[in-house]
Amino acid sequence: MSIWVTLEMMVRDAAWDDLVPFLEAKLPAVRAFDGNLSVSILHDPHANRLLILEEWKSRDHHEAYLGAIAENGVMEQLLSFMVGPPDVKYFER
After folding, report:
1. 3-class SS at 1?
2. Which residues contact 36 (CB under 8 A, 6 or more apart)?
3. pLDDT tens string 3-23
4. Is the pLDDT of residue 89 over 90?
5. Do 33 and 68 meet the contact criterion of CB atoms below 8 Å apart?
6. Cβ 66 vs Cβ 75: under 8 Å
7. What sections of the chain are H helices per DSSP?
8. Where residue 69 falls among pLDDT bands split at 50, 70, 90?
9. What is the distance between the alpha carbons of residues 9 and 85, in angstroms, rounded to a whole number?
10. Confidence band, pLDDT 50/70/90 cuts, at residue 56
């Protein structure tokens, strides 16, 4: 059974225009990571909030991905666009 993961973050003021090309460049690697089934980006421009909605084969697969992007610096790059760390939640179907 797959799991759904949400990562909700507040985007820094005026960072959205720089965030979009960053996400476009990084999303293919997320989709290619072992265990990823899908990833979608949702933006609330009125509240300047970003929601990343992901489906993974398992929580272990997602946690392995988080470890990989923490190690290679992608998480740090993503957080540079944000007010604070993401609120990560896991859901089962």
Report:
1. coil
2. 30, 54, 55, 56, 57, 61, 65
3. 999 999 999 998 999 999 999
4. yes
5. yes
6. yes
7. 16-32, 59-72, 74-79
8. very high
9. 7
10. very high
**Cα 80 → chain centroid:** 13
Mean pLDDT of 62-73: 96
Q: How many CA atoms lie within 13 A of 74 on its CB side?
A: 13
Tell me the two tokens of residue 24: 């476009």
Contact 4, 54 (CB under 8 A): yes
Token duo for residue 65: 């991905």
Give the 3-state secondary structure of residue 2: coil
Q: Is the separation of the CB atoms in 82 and 10 below 8 Å? A: yes
